[in-house]
Design a protein that fits this description.
The complex is a heterodimer of chains A (217) and B (316). Chain A is built from seven helices and five strands. Chain A has 217 residues and is α+β, with helices and mostly antiparallel strands. Chain A has a five-stranded mixed sheet, sandwiched between helices. Chain B is α+β, with helices and mostly antiparallel strands. The chains are: A alpha+beta (217), B alpha+beta (316).
Chain lengths: 217, 316
């Protein structure tokens, strides 16, 4: 069963195991019927909710959401994909970084309703405990985290950063705007500045990224 | 966040009309500033008009030899466009000096121009703020004002405009193209887009209710050396204390605009004219008529030194 395999236990499974919710026995990765799960606390004005279709980690989902629902809350509270974290909820910390239509964004600063039809990749879609993305493996190898709260955002951002460099997108650290950007520590530090790590794992995160970049090159 | 209704029209004129007919409606593009403010209930729209479906996301050459940048072009796209990197490097540099990679992937050209100040007193509903709550006073004037304006401000408001991109647009003499709720179009020189606060700091631009920015047009490439120099409290992902956008020609003439020091991108003919006379002359012309607080008086020296650094970069 899902929760009995220690290798598939997520932090959330562990927490739930000790709660009454564990009585359900299974914590599915997705809600079985997410439509209509956004029960409002107070009555909404007419048409203040919308139907939203998303493709999340390769799976099509349909949600009926209060228009106020951020993409982050849609992922966490409605699809129960709790890998994407809520830190500041104001676009300052990067814990909510997800990859939407191929670009990393702050999922907290955008509305789910604005992404009808979008393709979303979260940390759960990059890799699994049994089959980790090479960036996840590199973070483990280089100790690129301590408490782990910012880590899903760091890893989504790191994957997107290497993609951006590959596409030739310049940064503030690029000496020559018209040359191919370098895969240097200075470039990676600048490009990762939207992801805050209060434990201070920055240097190990850069080491992990350099290893993956070197492997690709 | 207050509840709101939502629509996503397909035509710019329809979007403008949709906002014009409802006093509490707002456009939403990237949303990176508006949603931040809605969560704090500083902005409380009852209806959002999503402009992401309007097809305003292209960068096209103009017949005059410049570039027309669609209002919805993301900051990342604009900074990375090969024509912008080659011919308008000051704009690429300014964009890349702002925000984070995630925010630049979302934030749009028009939204960047229209973003609100990051003044901490504007952001804190427990503080007086003439911009957020006209007539309530200015918390910053007697508060912590290290980040605040040293020129162009008033006794009602000393907030700065936070954009880097807008400072480059100002030094490039960009023009802002709009459509109004009745379908009429107009073009506004960037110098006229933002107001200075005077007694009405809540009125930040000359745009009418429902008037939608459709594109920003760059004139033909100005040539010269392009520099954007930004000084901030950390080396990345922070707003400017002072920034300098400069375009310097081989004969030493050119243009210079400042960010982080005024309620709008700050440039003057006198400042440009003084460029061959050096940073001290440019600073005194640009900051003429300004006023500092105890906290932000350091910015005067910082402006002069940042201009000096920018001019050195332009020679290098």
């Amino acid at each position: 069963m899902h929760g009995s395999d220690p290798f598939t236990m997520t932090r959330r499974n562990v927490l739930l195991t000790g709660s009454t919710l564990a009585a359900t026995g299974v914590v599915p990765a997705y809600a079985e019927d997410p439509v209509g799960s956004g029960t409002p606390v107070e009555p909404l004005p007419e048409a203040a909710s919308s139907q939203v279709r998303l493709r999340v980690n390769g799976r099509e989902v349909r949600l009926m959401l209060d228009n106020r629902t951020t993409l982050l809350d849609a992922l966490r509270e409605h699809l129960h994909l709790t890998g994407t974290k809520k830190g500041c909820d104001h676009g300052q910390c990067g814990a909510c970084t997800a990859i939407v239509d191929g670009r990393r964004i702050n999922a907290c600063l955008t509305l789910a309703v604005m992404h009808d039809g979008a393709d979303v990749t979260t940390i759960e879609g990059l890799g699994t405990p049994r089959n980790m993305h090479q960036m996840q493996r590199a973070f483990v190898r280089h100790d690129g985290y301590q408490c782990g709260y910012c880590t899903p955002g760091q890893i989504c951002s790191a994957v997107a950063v290497l993609d951006e460099i590959g596409k030739g997108i310049p940064s503030h650290a690029s000496a020559d705007l018209n040359a191919r950007p370098l895969l240097s520590a200075e470039e990676l530090r600048e490009r990762m500045s939207g992801n805050i790590c209060r434990c201070g794992a920055y240097s190990n995160i850069i080491d992990a990224m350099l290893e993956v970049a070197g492997r690709r090159a | 966040m207050k509840a709101f209704t939502y629509e996503r029209p397909a035509k710019p004129a329809d979007a403008a009309a949709a906002v014009a007919r409802r006093p509490a409606a707002k456009f939403i593009a990237g949303g990176t500033n508006l949603l931040d403010l809605m969560k704090l209930q500083i902005e409380q729209p009852t209806h959002l008009v999503d402009v992401n479906g309007l097809g305003l996301d292209r960068i096209e050459p103009t017949s005059a030899g410049g570039l027309r940048v669609g209002a919805l072009v993301r900051n990342t796209e604009l900074a990375a466009d090969p024509r912008v990197r080659r011919d308008y490097a000051v704009l690429s540099r300014a964009l890349l000096a702002g925000a984070s990679g995630q925010l630049r992937n979302k934030a749009t050209t028009a939204g960047n121009l229209l973003q609100r100040t990051r003044c901490a007193y504007f952001y804190d509903p427990n503080q007086p703020c003439n911009k957020r709550d006209p007539g309530s006073g200015c918390g910053a004037l007697r508060g912590l004002s290290r980040q605040h304006a040293i020129v162009g401000a008033s006794s009602a408001c000393i907030a700065t405009h936070p954009s880097d991109m807008a400072v480059a647009m100002r030094v490039l003499d960009a023009q802002v193209d709009t459509v109004k709720g009745d379908g009429r179009q107009r073009t506004i020189p960037i110098v006229e887009l933002h107001r200075v606060p005077g007694d009405t700091p809540h009125l930040e631009t000359v745009l009418e209710p429902g008037e939608l920015i459709t594109s920003v047009t760059l004139p033909p490439p100005p040539g010269g050396r392009h520099v954007y120099r930004k000084v901030r409290d950390r080396s990345s992902y922070a707003f400017a204390l002072v920034s300098v956008a400069a375009i310097v020609q081989p004969d030493g003439t050119g243009r210079v605009a400042l960010g982080g020091v005024a309620p709008k991108p700050w440039r003057s003919d006198a400042g440009d004219t003084a460029l061959p006379d050096g940073p001290g002359a440019v600073t005194s012309r640009l900051l003429a008529g300004g006023a500092t607080t105890r906290d932000n008086a350091f910015k005067v020296t910082l402006v002069e030194r940042t201009i000096a650094a920018a001019l050195a970069d332009a020679k290098g």
